[in-house]
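Hey, can you fold this one?
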Amino acid sequence: MIAQAIARRPPVLVAVMCVALVFAMAGFSAYWSLQPVLQPAWQMNNVTAGWLSGAFFGGYVLAVPFLTAITDRVDARYVFISGAVLSAAALVGLAFTATGFWSALPWRVIAGTGMAGCYMPGLKMLTDRLTNKAPRARAVAFYTACFSGGTAASYALAGCALEWFGWRGAFLFTAAGPALAGIALAVLVAPGEPEAAKVVRSHVLDFRPVLRSRKTMSFIVGYAGHGAELFAMRSWVVPFLVFCLGSSAEFTLNATLLAALTSLVAVASSIGGAELALRVGRVRLISCVMLATFALSVVVGFSSLLPFAVVALLCLVYSAAIQADSAALTAGAVNTSPAGHRGATLAVHSTLGFSGSLFAPPLVGAVLDLAAPLGGTTAWGLAFVTMGSMALFGFLVFMLLRRRLARTVLAPQ
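Sure. Predicted structure:
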C-alpha cells in the first residue's frame, strides 16, 4: 500500500506534507492579492479592508485551540482533511455570494477556521510520525517554511486568475487547491496514533501544562510578535507596491507577483534560519532577527520615493528577515513542550501567534487612514513602523520571560 510505503520513508513523508500544505493554502493570500480591486468595488476604507483581512485570523484563533489540542487524542490526519474541505467551501462561497464587507465576512471567518484545521494539525501529524528530535527539528523547518511557499503560490495564483477570470473566478480557481490537498492526504498518508501523555489533561482544552512551562511560553510569545508583523506586512504589501508603482490597474498583477516573490524568499530564509539556530543557538538568532526586522521596517516604510527596483529589493530583504526566526520559534516550542502535550503546545502557540494577526491588519489600516493628510509617503512610513513595533514588542516580552526563567533556575533551592 502506497501510504504504508511513504510512512517508512520519513523524507518522502515530509515532502508529501509540505506539498499538501502548499495546496491547502492556495486561497490563503487570495484576498490580499485581490484587495486593490475589491476595496473600491466593495467601497471599503483602509480600516474596513484591514478588518476583513483580520477576520480570517479571527476564525483561525477561535478554532485553533480545539482543532490543534484535539490532535493529542485523535489522529491529526482527520483534522487536516476537514480543514481542507472548509477552506475550499469558503473560497467557493466568496466566489458566488460576496458583494461587500458583510457578505464576505462570514466566509473569511470560515476560511480562517479551515486553515486552523490544516496548518498546526498538519505539523502535529508530521511530528507524531517522526521519532528523533534532530529529524523532527528539520522537518519543522521545512514544513513551516512551506507556509511561506504556500503564501507565495497563493499570491501568484490569485493575481494571475484575476487577469484571466476576474475576482470571482480567482476565488473559485484557488478553491481547487485545498480540495486536492484533502484528497492527497486521504490517499498518501496512513492513519496513526498520537503520542501518549505522561499526565492526561482533564479535558482537551486544559492548557495548564503548557502555560506552566516558561521556556515553552517564551518561544510562543516571541512567535506572537513575529506573527503580527508578518501578517500585517503580507496584508498590506500589495497595496504598498501598487502605491509605489502608481494607481493604474495594469500594475496590480506586477504587484501581486512581486508580493509572491517576497513570500518565496522567505522559504529559504526560514530553512536557513533554522539551520543557523542549530549552530548559534535559538535565543541568539531570534533576538538578532527581531531587532533587525524593526530597523528594516523603518527603512522600507519610508522608501516609496526611491526607484522601484530599490523598493522591491528592500521588500525582499524585509520579508526574508521576518521569516528567519519563524522555524526557530516553532521548533523551540515543539522541542520544549511537555511530554504528551505537543498538540496543546501547538494550540497555544498558534492561538497566541495568530491573535496579533487579527488586530494587526486593521491597526495598520487605521494608521494609513489617520496619517493620510500627511501624504502617502509619510503614511506608509508610519504604517511600516507600526508593523516593526509588533516584533519589537514580542522581542521585549521574549527576553523578559527568558531572564525570569534564568533567575528561577539559578535561585537556591
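The longest helix spans residues 133-174. Let me know if you want another pass with a different chain boundary.
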